[in-house]
Amino acid sequence: MTLFDHEFETILDAIPQPIIIKDELSRFRFLNTAAYALVGRARRDLIGRSDSDILPGAEANRIREMDKEVLRTGTALSVEEDITLSDGTVRNLVTQKRRVELAGGGSKERLVVATIQDVTACRKAETELRNSEEHYRSLVELHPQVPWTASPSGEVLEVGPRWKDITGFEAADALKRAEAIHPDDLDDVQRLWSRSLITGEPLDVEFRLATAEGCYRWFRNRAAARKAQDGTIVRWYGILENVDDRRKAWEALQESESRFRAIADDAPVMIWVTDASGAATYHSRLWLETTGQTAEQAKGFGWAEAVHREDRQKVECGFDAALRRQKPVRVEYRLRRADGSLAWVIDIGQPRFASDGRFLGYVGIALDITERRKAEEERLLAQKQIHHMARHDALTGLPNRQFLREEFARLAEKIAPGTKIAVFCLVLDNLKAINDAYGRTTGDLLLRRVAARLGNSVKQSDMLCRFGGDEFVVLRTGITGSDEARCLAQQFIDVLQVPYELTGTQVDLGLIVGGVAARMADQPLDDLIQAADIALEQAKAGGRGTYVEYEPGMDADLQAKQQMKVSLRRALEKGELEVHYQPLVHLPTGRITTCEALVRWTHPEMGPVSPAEFIPIAEETGLIAPLGDWVLRQACKEATKWQPHVSVAVNLSPLQFRNRRLASDVRNILGETGLAPSRLQLEVTESVFLDGSDSNLRLLQELRQLGVKLAMDDFGTGYSSLSYLRSFRFDKIKVDRSFISDLPMSDESLAIIRAVAGIGRTLRITTTVEGVETETQLDAIKAEGFDEAQGYLFARPLPAERIPELIQTLHM
């Protein structure tokens, strides 16, 4: 059945949307080309057929009912539905159905015209847009910051939903309320926002914003304009960020830094801080005031300009080395003060690390040690002076016996053993008569003239010394023999016996010389000096101008001394020595507090030998070390048998301090014997300070750390006993017996012991007096407040077995 003519069908086929026409029986009357393509059927398969011929029953009935509704009511119907096509694809189609009435043959024919529009792509785009908008909205809602938009004029158009969560205000009106901004920040916010609106430049401002809780929080507001191609602003896009925690942390940091600066600027030391590169970021006020630098001048590495140029390289190298290893730094240098003077400082820096281990830089202090350095230099100078004084004659400046011993010891290491040396002992004749006649001042001047003449008469390699009084000693190495020695002695005589002009007075002086020549390795120096002394005694018989050279046979005493050395070594090996003990009595109570250990020797042939004879021999031969250890061990062993309140005192020779393990040896002996360290007292003389004082002082400190007591023996006999009390705090000082023998008659001795007692009370040092032999002496020292006394009045040195009974019975 033909509904349209051919031309009209051609027009309908050109329409891209499918068009389907059905009659009242729901039969297909016409389909344009697009409709055939949509249905996927040929014309011959559709014209005259109905939906039930090509669709499932339920689907065909649904469509039939819609068609009947359109035909009955004449109302257009639009339906959007997903249709599965013949190729299996699903398309989203919008079908619009209308009723059309055609007149013909005296009757009207009603048709359903359906136009179909494929909206699949459109709906897909809409879905994607909707999903995108939902995604964007989710991002906006979940974003920790608050996005917002505004018109080109600055009117806020949209605010993210997080606004209310953050501020407590509704998003619709919060940004319009200027009163929400802290009054102190409002002018800055409005000024910067107005400038951005005019210039189009981005906005970046921090301010405080009121919250629903009635407080203010810090926010950062940033915005940028989106512009059209002609440069006009289309819209503003912004982000409001809650920076309250960061701002408060920053303010807390600023407050912490302010407190640090306040403390550092008031500190009595110069404080500095660097970054990880070593560049200074801070110097305290004291540094700036001391150096005259400004903070900017000191920043970075500018501080080094204040360092003395001679120290700058050392300082920079020290800091560079520490920086590379990220280790503490310590360096001393001179700092140029603002007034041009120099200050010595000690600079100490510690590395700083973050919690994650990152190196942050250094913080340190520079301490002004100028006064300490000066004191240290005075102390070193004083030590040098003391060292020099201990080894030189104060009147003539010539070396003394101690210097000669030390120099000879060094010389012996450098000169071949077969080399001959000569020692001359020179004694001035008539010096006492000159002193008596013209006074001590003239006598001293004469001695200086003698020293000068002798100095001009010897070689530079010779050693010229004054041993005191009228005695001088000359030592020459490399001498050829007795003839040269005799010529040199005669030269001394000729030079010194020329009359002297002294302050208008001419005086005559004689000289007597004794000498000895020997090979370097044959005898110790003291033996050579003694041999020269023996020869000198022979020369004195000949009067002034006499020289006698030592010959065998003159040294009977010297040979006896040599024999004593052999005997002493044998006695030590065979146990012929013994230790006696002499008590020290506590004067207020009369009880024995300490017993001093005194070594005794009974020679098998000679009988008792005085310690004054064999102790020097032990020191000369090196036997003092094993002898001292033996005495110490015996004394500690015996002391364990005494009552606990009684200590034992043991003398240490200065030569024992050459053993750098002395403190360790004492500790071992205490451990072996079981004696408590507090019950051991070690007595030393001030000569310990004269020989290697720094190392000896360290040994004394090590002994103190063991817990033993330390006493200075023979106090007052040296020239600097008081100064040594400043160098080291002794537990006890023992006044030499020479100050006690003439008490109470001697006002001088009484004044001295009174001063010593006062020193002891002031420094809280126990004071002890040696050599008390009479009741009058005892009364005198009691009156001055001494703590202890020792002497024959109480007891002589006794064998060990008698001491426990003595401790029990001795009371005053």
From TrEMBL:
User: Taking every annotated instance into account, which residue ranges of this chain make up the domain PAC?
Assistant: 203-255, 329-381
Superkingdom of origin organism = Bacteria
Query: Which residue numbers delimit the PAS domain?
Result: 4-74, 132-201, 256-326
- Specify the species: Sinorhizobium saheli
Q: Which NCBIfam families match?
A: GGDEF, sensory_box
Q: Which SUPFAM superfamilies match?
A: EAL domain-like, Nucleotide cyclase, PYP-like sensor domain (PAS domain)
List, for all copies, the residue spans of the domain called GGDEF: 419-552
> What protein is this chain from?
PAS domain S-box protein
Q: Which CDD domains match?
A: EAL (cd01948), GGDEF (cd01949), PAS (cd00130)
